[in-house]
Amino acid sequence: MKLYFLGTGSSYPTKKRGVSAAALQLDDGSVWLFDCGEGTQIQVQKVTVSRQRINKIFITHLHGDHLFGLPGLLCTISSQIGMSKEELEAKGTPVVDLYGPQGLRRFVYTSLSLSRSPLQFKYRIHELVPVKDQYLENWDEWDVDHSAPSVTHPSELPGSLICPDEDSDGNVHWKLFDDDNWYAVAGWIHHRVPSFGFVLNEKSRPGTLDKNKLMELGLPPGPAYGQLKKGKSVTTEDGKLITPDMAVGSTIPGKTLVILGDTSDASPLAHLVSSNDRGCDVVVHEATFDESLKEKAAEFGHSTSSQAAEFAKSINAKMLILNHFSQRYGRVSEESQNEETVAILEQEAKKALEGTSVHIKCAEDLFTYEIPRTSREVSK
Asked: Which of 69, 183, 301, 378 lies deepest, with the highest CB count within 10 Å?
């Protein structure tokens, strides 16, 4: 799996950086997109990611630097599918699932409908219903309708309204999906508007078959190998019982990824990872300001790099990747005496992480992080 950082700046795009967007390319080639700020459809052309393979889009919150690129990207995906109506009917129309806060469906419908934008694929929107703690005290001073429209876009399929589940300790989370390979949930984090973080848990996989041992046990290649991989015992032609533990390697644990939206405090989400005995393989956390601007960060609902480091420690993260930098910080590659760079943010985070095994990286636009594979050891 690879994480491509398409935009790493905050507020607005500049010559130095685009705004928030990251793409996760899975091992099967499919792509999940996290946020879609202005210019994302241009940035994604600069990396080896196929826009036609995007089948899930996660929006952390409804601020423009995380959202304004979405209508354009959807239209670009549609225009580049390159199949006729007959081909789409024969092969099956692609479907893209979108996840985000309540109000996302109204935004997408209004943008696509007012511009009369047809799509060659179908989409579903799954809206997360925020909890009371996510709203600021003056929330009702701005009268905005976040409810879903009563009509649908011609390419829209029925989605879902996801309400939070509460555990016995009063912690809440939103269940997004649970399939053969992934279990995904969302948690809330502090910001000026309802903002979410996404916790992606890859499911464990069966170990590797020791084919030489199976041959020694008298079992030639065939369908029985697949049964053993599924955890089922098989019998050879001469009546010998072969159980999975005799020739299948140790289970390969999956990866856990945490990708956060803007936040001044991500602790309400921590329980979703701290309860996971395998910890967190990578966490993507904003670091808008350095520690000298801590008060400004809090005022606007953002974090410093040191605060991001503290959160990474709290969830036993192996890798912390910082992004969403204020445009006041230049790129390290452009360091000069007259400009601060993100190096100051990385240095502060490293100081906060002294004595831990957490690795750290400040992402720049088009930076690619390849998530290390778990080794496949065959049982003896």
From this structure: 69
> Residues 280, 5, 258, CA angle at the centre, nearest 5°?
20
> pLDDT at position 316, please?
93
Rg (C-alpha) for the chain, rounded Å, is 23
Determine whether 290 is an active site residue: no
Q: Name the token pair of 2.
A: 């690879």
Which is catalytic among the residues 35, 65, 281, 290? 65
Question: From its phi and psi, is residue 213 left (phi > 0), alpha (psi between -120 and 50) or beta?
Answer: alpha
What digits encode the pLDDT tens for the residues 45-71? 999 998 889 999 999 999 999 999 999
Q: Locate 342 and state its tokens.
A: 């993100």
pTM summary value: 0.90
| pLDDT tier, 211 (very low <50, low <70, confident <90, very high otherwise) | confident
Question: Quick one: which of 42, 164, 165, 59 has its CA closest to 105?
Answer: 59
What 8-state DSSP symbol labels residue 319? E
Of the pLDDT bands very low, low, confident and very high (cuts 50, 70, 90), residue 247 is confident
Query: Could you please report the per-residue DSSP string of 197-235?
Result: EEEEEEPPB---B-HHHHHHTT--SSHHHHHHHTT--EE
What token pair was written down for 168? 């016995």
CA distance 363 to 336: 19
